[in-house]
Design brief:
- InterPro entries: Tetraspanin/Peripherin, Tetraspanin_EC2_sf.
- This is Tetraspanin.
- Pfam families: Tetraspanin.
- It is a multi-pass membrane protein.
- The protein has helices at about 1-5, 15-40, 40-60, 65-75, 90-95, 130-140.
- It has a single domain (about 40-140), classed as Tetraspanin (Cd81 Antigen, Extracellular Domain, Chain: A, Orthogonal Bundle), CATH 1.10.1450.10.
- It is elongated and about 75 Å long.
- The protein is an all-alpha fold.
- The chain is built from six helices and no strands.
- The protein is about 55% helix and about 0% strand.
Amino acid sequence: MASGGLGSLPPPRNPVYYTFLLLLIFLLEAMVGILSYVYQEQVYKELELNLNTTFSKSYSIDADKTTAIDQMQTQFKCCGAIRFEDWEYSQWYKNLKTSSNNKVPDTCCKSVAPGCGRRDHPSNIHYSVSMGVINMFICD
């Protein structure tokens, strides 16, 4: 990528210097690729932890995060950060338990409608994504 910008400059007076810069850019890009491969699992686990925390503690409390989570679940056709059972341990579920029978938010439903989250049957809830939003976001 950066080598393209370097190629648009006027021709170098010293070809050795130009070759050195291209080699340096190539090595930096290779290093970024290797580091991303090495730390892939660690980044995935960190994403999983943070996303699960956001789902369980912020849904229905922070309006912006609630909207973002609803959009993710609708767009990626999934339910929960990892699986639909995540909602059982969320602050949202504990707060709604007394006033509603919803087991998951309505945005988890295949056909979103008010109150559709009361049934967590596979015909009603998105079960197909084994790792929830994280896999869908990374794969998209």
